[in-house]
C-alpha cells in the first residue's frame, strides 16, 4: 500500500493545474456527500431531504450584487468556496443575506440545488416558503389599500 501511495503522490505532481483542481473538487464533493450520509442511507432521509431543497428563484435573483469593497476581507482572502477560485476585482459577485460573497454564477448554481449558504448553512427560502412570504407581504398591503379606497370615497 505504501508503494501505491508513493506512486500516486508522484503522479499527483505531474498533473496539470486544471486536473489537480478537478480532483480536489471531486474529493471535496465526495467528503461532503459522506458527511451528509447521502451515499449510504441510514433510513432517515430527513437530513438529506432538507439539505437538497433548492432556494426559490426569486430569492436567488434578488441576491445583493456587492461592489468589490462590500465583500468582506475574509471572503476576498478565502475566495469562492463553491469553485475554490479566488475573488478578483471586476468579477460579478453575489452576497447571500448572511453576508458571504461568491462568484455570481457559482452561487446561482449552488442555490438551485442547495438553499443553504455553503459557508454557514444560512437557509434561503424555498419556493414554498417564498410563496408564504409573498402572501404575507400581500396581506400586509391589503389594509393600506382598503384605507386608501375608503378615504377616496
TrEMBL record:
It comes from Paspalum notatum var. saurae. The lineage of its organism: Eukaryota, Viridiplantae, Streptophyta, Embryophyta, Tracheophyta. Keywords: Metal-binding, Zinc, Zinc-finger. Pfam families: zf-RING_2. This is RING-type domain-containing protein. Gene3D superfamilies: Zinc/RING finger domain, C3HC4 (zinc finger). GO terms for cellular component: nucleus. The keyword NAD does not apply. GO terms for molecular function: ubiquitin protein ligase activity; zinc ion binding. One of its GO terms (biological process) is ubiquitin-dependent protein catabolic process. The keyword RNA-binding does not apply. InterPro entries: RING_finger_E3_ligase, Znf_RING, Znf_RING/FYVE/PHD. SMART domains: RING (SM00184). Residues 80-121 form the RING-type domain.
Amino acid at each position: 500500500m505504501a508503494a501505491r501511495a508513493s506512486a500516486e503522490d508522484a503522479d499527483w505532481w505531474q498533473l496539470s493545474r486544471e486536473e489537480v483542481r478537478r480532483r480536489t473538487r471531486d474529493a471535496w464533493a465526495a467528503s461532503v456527500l459522506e458527511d451528509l450520509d447521502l451515499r449510504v442511507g441510514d433510513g432517515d432521509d430527513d437530513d438529506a431531504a432538507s439539505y437538497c431543497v433548492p432556494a426559490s428563484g426569486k430569492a436567488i435573483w434578488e441576491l445583493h450584487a456587492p461592489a468589490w469593497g462590500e465583500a468582506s476581507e475574509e471572503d476576498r482572502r478565502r475566495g469562492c468556496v463553491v469553485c475554490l477560485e479566488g475573488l478578483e476585482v471586476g468579477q460579478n459577485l453575489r452576497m447571500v443575506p448572511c453576508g458571504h460573497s461568491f462568484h455570481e454564477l457559482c452561487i446561482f448554481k449552488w442555490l438551485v440545488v442547495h438553499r443553504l449558504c455553503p459557508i454557514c448553512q444560512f437557509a434561503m427560502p424555498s419556493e414554498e416558503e417564498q410563496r408564504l412570504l409573498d402572501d404575507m407581504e400581500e396581506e400586509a398591503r391589503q389594509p393600506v389599500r382598503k384605507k386608501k379606497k375608503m378615504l377616496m370615497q
